[in-house]
Amino acid sequence: MGVPLVLMLHPREHYDLADLPDELAAELGVLSTHIARHVQGLPHIARAHVYRIGDGAAHLHLWFFARPEGQTQLRGTWMPVWDDLLPEYPADVAEADAVIVADALVASVGGRRSTGG
Hints:
This protein is of the alpha+beta class and 117 residues long. It has helices spanning 22-40, 79-85, 91-109, and strands spanning 6-9, 45-52, 62-68. The longest helix has 19 residues, at 22-40.
């Protein structure tokens, strides 16, 4: 990864966005909002970009790309392209940030964090 953090949210069952039952759609909205808040709460992150990528796939995936503080040239819809072009971001820092976001998400909406990879 070139950006500081990339996270993915997806339903456990195979749904596309248009097929998502209303209850799961409501949960998706709450989870997406909380993930964006927690990503943007990291001190070196300015913005959480949210994308639905995977046209033609039968499974919904929402991607969260963290834009680093002070790098306004990364604004806009090209964040996934920038991710491929930027120098590699330290994996240990990204992993630590992912743990912070996951723990904050559990604290704010409940559930549990998976310990498996």
